[in-house]
Design brief:
The protein has 3 helices and 12 strands. The chain is α+β, with helices and mostly antiparallel strands and about 270 residues long. The strands form 2 sheets. The chain has a 6-stranded antiparallel barrel. It has a 6-stranded antiparallel beta barrel with strand order 6-7-8-11-10-9.
């Protein structure tokens, strides 16, 4: 009994082989013997074949299931790889679209009419930003060797960025319209008789006032440079986001959202 317990697998296999042999012998007799013997043997064969078919069918299904699992697993891995490649391709496309937008902005700034009387245009890339004052003052990779000098105006395809504050051989510092010290004379694009002065709030918007309290300036008006001071006439500054009246100074006070998207700004054009 101990031997059978220790060799259980061998015993089961031997039993299956013996049963198969018995099926073959009985099947042979059922073909060559009498009808009575054939009927009896047929019943015996059926009794033996049924459990054997169940066993062998189960084995076949299990083996097939294993191969099926491997196929599904391989397909899943292939799909994961395709998805990863698709995501990488999508990132590349998004990057390309962003760069294309920057180039289009640069192209518009180079052909912008207010700069037609300017002697030289220099394309530059932002290389450094002051983290304490983002986009108030920043550095670009063009300097005196490129023909850049102090007070040159800085723009992109969407409008006015600021002016050159300081220069080196291969770099320039730019102070933007968001600076509280950068005063800009403006007029309304809708009603050119409306004029005033703007300066940045040191954060993300510009604030200023209109010269005449009765001036018809409204929310949504586009403001451009008036041509008085450093900046040439006609450069977009921003859109009026609010209009209030200051009783003490008896002036209309405006807040303006700049047209330039400073948070995504990478490339600029400098005009002499």
């Amino acid at each position: 009994m101990n031997w059978f317990r220790e060799h259980r697998l061998l015993t089961v296999i031997s039993g299956i082989i013996l049963a198969l042999c018995l099926v073959i012998v009985v099947s042979f007799l059922s073909v060559g013997g009498s009808s009575f013997l054939g009927n009896k043997t047929h019943s015996i064969v059926h009794v033996i074949q049924h459990p054997l078919s169940f066993i062998t069918g189960g084995v076949r299904n299990t083996v097939a299931g294993i191969f099926k699992y491997d196929e599904v697993k391989n397909e899943n891995e292939q799909l994961k790889e395709k998805l990863r490649k698709a995501e990488e391709t999508n990132k590349d496309l998004l990057l390309t679209k962003d760069e294309l937008r920057q180039l289009k902005d640069l192209s518009r700034s180079l052909s912008f009419d207010p700069y037609k009387n300017r002697k030289q245009a220099v394309a530059a890339r932002i290389t450094e930003i002051d983290n304490s004052n983002p986009y108030i003052v920043f550095t670009v990779d063009a300097g005196t060797e490129d023909g850049v000098s102090k007070d040159d105006i800085v723009v992109d395809g969407k409008g006015l960025i600021g002016k050159v504050l300081d220069t080196g051989k291969h770099w320039s510092k730019v102070v933007s319209v968001l600076s509280e010290t950068n005063n800009i004379s403006f007029k309304s694009l809708r009603k050119t008789s409306v004029m005033g002065v703007l300066a940045g709030d040191g954060k993300k918007i510009l604030k200023g006032y209109v010269m005449k309290k009765e001036a018809p300036i409204i929310k949504g008006d586009i403001l451009v440079t008036s041509g008085i001071g450093v900046y040439p006439e006609g450069i977009k500054i921003g859109r009026v986001s609010s209009v209030d009246y200051d009783e003490d100074r008896q002036l209309k006070v405006v807040e303006v959202q700049p047209t330039v998207e400073f948070e995504t700004l990478q490339k600029v054009t400098i005009y002499k």
